[in-house]
Amino acid sequence: MSLFITFEGCEGFGKSTQAGLLHERLKAAGYEVVRTQEPGGTPLGTEISRILKWSDQDAICPLAELMLFNASRAELVSRIVKPALAAGKIIVCDRYVDSTIVYQGLGRGLSLSTVRAINSIASQGLMPDLTLLLDMPVEKGQARKHMQTADRIEREGLGFHRKVHDGYLALAGEEPSRWLVVDASQTKDRIADIIWEKVKSLLDARYSAPNR
Ligand code: TMP
Fold this sequence. Notes:
Helices cover 55% and strands 13% of the residues. It is an alpha/beta fold. Strands 2-3-1-4-5 form a five-stranded parallel sheet, with helices on both faces. The mean pLDDT is 93. The structure holds thymidine-5'-phosphate. Thymidine-5'-phosphate is lined by residues 11, 38-39, 69, 95, 99-100, 103-104, 153-154. Thymidine-5'-phosphate binds next to α4.
């Protein structure tokens, strides 16, 4: 029954809310599901996440940033994601390798081949079965953000976030069989229903699902 689902999108587009709703819906339908996130999801990952988000050194160089996100990822994949998938569980993960391509590659300007190579080592080549991109105009997400509580990456300017946003759409366009782009300006319930239909169809295509 294993399935690896990731959520992607700019900050403030409702990813975490939707990951939580999908987790609850899968559990209610009788699936064994693990919800996790990047950076974080393990004790080491949580420490790395704190450094990445809240370090007051604005000057973590892009390559160090790339390595830190991937150190968190290496720990998460080997300790949580792979064992859960091997046990037949569904993983719902808030952000994964695509975040690194758009934030460190397109946002910070690191070479995409370097980013992809490091991502691939840290993730052991494991790619999601389905990636859900919550999308809306980048200015709307920025407007939802409170600068007082914004972390080191959220504080980046509109130009940075536009690159991230456009990068996501380009990735989704390159691999439409893995990505579903969902209009995040719809109501929370409508978005959750669209995501559920997609996940259900994927599960039905692969397995005959329990208790539904
Ligand atoms: P979030 O918990 O709000 O999603 O914050 C995670 C932040 O880290 C967000 O600004 C995106 C950023 N990020 C990267 O820059 N690269 C990565 O590889 C990942 C996973 C996240």
